[in-house]
Every structure is written in C-alpha cells, then in structure tokens.
Amino acid sequence: MIEIKTSTLSDGELNRGVFATQDIKKGELIHAAPALPYPNDQHVHIEKTLLADYAFEYGKNHTALLLGYGMLFNHSYQPNAIYEINFPNHTFDFFAYKDIKAGEEILINYNGEVDDNEPLWFNKE
C-alpha cells in the first residue's frame, strides 16, 4: 500500500517520503508504526543526534522513536493523513484523512492536529 521514494518536499540529506502505491480511501489505516518510547529526561541524549528531528511526543512523560515507515512521513499544514497514538499496542496508527491517489506522497501535520498551523522548529526564523 505504501513505499519509500525520493520526496521533493524534504530538503534533508536523505530526501525521502512515504508514497501510496494504490488508492487509499479516507479513514483507511495506512500503517501501524511500532513505537519505542523513552522517558522525556532521556531526550537530552537523543537531541545530540540526527534522531532528534524524528522523535514524537508519546503522552505527557515520554517521547518515542517510530519504527517501520513511521519516522519517514513528511510534514504539511494541509495533510492528507493523520496519526493516532495507540497506547495499548505501542503503535502510531496512520490513517488517510482524505482520499489519497496512487503515487501521491502521504503527509501529516507534525503539530499532531490537522488544522494546527503553529510554526514548527524548521519554519521559525
């Protein structure tokens, strides 16, 4: 259903993104990314690495790194996908927010809410 390809949206060194290999209907589960949570006080160690830009908030007292495709979804303030934290399964579940066509890049809002337009760390001057 999804694959990793070169993205024109990512200006990072790796320029990767998640793309649909088939049409995906609104509300459909795209990917359940396993989470590796750790206490927030350990994040100071992660901040010294490239992984800092890929960490997700995981509740009030934890942060998480995601496995699978989880850390490779790029950001948009007009996303076509959303994610929900599934604490019982320790996954971040990515769903289509709207219909997604085959070949389209799947984008999430890094702020966690579809309509949250708060500038992110890489947009602040």
What are the defining features of this structure?
Beta-clip-like, globular, 1 helix, 125 residues, mainly beta, 5-stranded antiparallel beta sheet
So what's the CATH class?
Mainly Beta
Strand fraction equals 35-45%
Rg computed from alpha carbons, rounded to a whole number of angstroms: 14 Å
- Give the strand order of the largest sheet, numbering strands 1, 2, ... along the chain: 4-5-3-8-7
How many domains, in number, for the residues? 1
Helical stretch tally: 1
Mean pLDDT: 92
**What order do the SSEs take from the amino end to the carboxyl end, as H and E?**
EEEHEEEEEE
Kindly report how far apart the N and C termini lie.
37 Å
Low-confidence stretches: none
Q: What class, by secondary structure content?
A: mainly beta
β-strand number? 9
Describe the structure.
The chain has one helix and nine strands; from the N terminus they run βββαββββββ. With 125 residues, it is mostly beta strands. It has one domain: Beta-clip-like (Beta Complex), CATH 2.170.270. The strands form three sheets. Strands 4-5-3-8-7 form a five-stranded antiparallel β-sheet, with no helix packed on it. The chain has a two-stranded antiparallel ribbon with strand order 1-2. Strand 7 and strand 8 form a beta hairpin. The mean pLDDT is 92.
List the helices and strands and how they pair.
Blueprint: E1 2-6, E2 16-20, E3 29-39, H1 43-46, E4 56-57, E5 62-66, E6 74-75, E7 81-86, E8 91-96, E9 107-108
Parallel strand pairs: 6-9
Antiparallel strand pairs: 1-2, 3-5, 3-8, 4-5, 7-8
